[in-house]
Amino acid sequence: MSDIKVYTTATCPWCTKIKDYLSDKGLKYQEIDVGKNSESAEEMIALTGQRSVPVTVIDGEVIVGFDREALDQQLS
């Protein structure tokens, strides 16, 4: 099983789409709300160089935004 982290904020509609997408596939993931934790926000910025969410990390591979094709490729 893949190690999946999803960096989110409470008000991000694309974050909700990613969480629903992963849940619909029966996948477990760690949600990290960068709006509530500045250390996590800094960690996400170090990974991506930007403040945009959602950011999904699957087995060390970073995907910015809700990119279904990239998600499926990393999950296969």
Q: Could you spell the SSE succession in H and E letters? A: EHEHEEH
> Please, how many domains?
1
Strand line-up across the major sheet: 2-1-3-4
Rg from C-alpha positions? 11 Å
Characterise this structure.
The protein has 3 helices and 4 strands. It is of the alpha+beta class and 76 residues long. The chain has a single domain, classed as 3-Layer(aba) Sandwich (Glutaredoxin), CATH 3.40.30. Strands 2-1-3-4 form a 4-stranded mixed β-sheet, sandwiched between helices. The longest helix is centred in the N-terminal third of the chain and has 12 residues. The chain is globular. The model has no long low-confidence stretch (mean pLDDT 95).
Summarize the structure.
With 76 residues, this protein is of the alpha+beta class.
Write the layout of secondary structure elements.
Layout: E1 4-8, H1 13-24, E2 30-33, H2 38-48, E3 55-58, E4 61-64, H3 68-75
Parallel strand pairs: 1-2
Antiparallel strand pairs: 1-3, 3-4
